Amino acid sequence: MIRRVENTSQEQLNKIKNVIGEAFVTNELFHNWGSVEERYEDVKKYMSLYVDCVYQAGELYANEDMTGFIGLEDSANAPKMPQIKMLCKMLTSIRFSKLRSLIEFAKQIDGSNKRYAKERHIDALMVCVDKEHQGKGIASELVTFAKRMSDDLDIPLLFDTDMKEYSDMYQHFGCELYNTVTADNGVTRYSLCYRK
């Protein structure tokens, strides 16, 4: 059963941040930040701030044993204050050159999901399964939960990923790959949609 993560201790939230940070270190989103070893600490910092933002916005969900996480945001009700706090903290904790490269990448892939993003939708902000628990159907459980939310609201569910294997996984779970955009660093953004 998937539930919203709320009223959790700082210790538990730190564990969640660690799981998610570890999972994203190899993500192509951070390709310009150097090798996995070179970007390790900065990606962990970035994802820690991102998890804080998603948690504070009430958009973080997990399975019962807290080994799988998904961020889900209804575009009609997206709170702005957690995003502003995250941006301010990023400016003081992550090197400007790394932030600049991330912004340049974001500019190049901007609008990759515009086909559906103009209407009310749910954004899958992240899907993450603890490395020790992968291959046990947890990602399927998380995506099924998100699809049910999409069905209940009768709005599309959007996934954006920079990893081909994740794009393939989402397609396996019934999502349509409707756009790809490749940035000048060679990283491709895959935009997918699930709709009832």
Could you name the key traits of this structure?
seven-stranded mixed beta sheet, Aminopeptidase, 7 helices, alpha+beta, 196 residues
Description:
There is one protein chain. The protein has 196 residues and is an alpha+beta fold. The chain contains 7 helices and 7 strands, in the order βααββαααβαβαββ. It has helices at 10-24, 36-56, 81-93, 96-109, 114-117, 138-153, 164-172; strands at 3-4, 60-62, 68-74, 122-129, 157-161, 176-182, 188-194. α1 packs across α2 and α2 runs antiparallel to α3.
Topology:
Elements: E1 3-4, H1 10-24, H2 36-56, E2 60-62, E3 68-74, H3 81-93, H4 96-109, H5 114-117, E4 122-129, H6 138-153, E5 157-161, H7 164-172, E6 176-182, E7 188-194
Parallel strand pairs: 4-5
Antiparallel strand pairs: 1-2, 2-3, 3-4, 5-7, 6-7
Brief overview, please?
With 196 residues, the chain is of the alpha+beta class. The protein is 47% helix and 20% strand. The model has no long low-confidence stretch (mean pLDDT 95).
Shape: globular
Strand content: 15-25%
Class from secondary-structure proportions: alpha+beta
Helix count equals 7
Q: State the separation between the terminal residues, measured CA to CA.
A: 21 Å
Number of strands: 7
Query: At the third CATH level, what is the topology name?
Result: Aminopeptidase
Low-confidence stretches: none
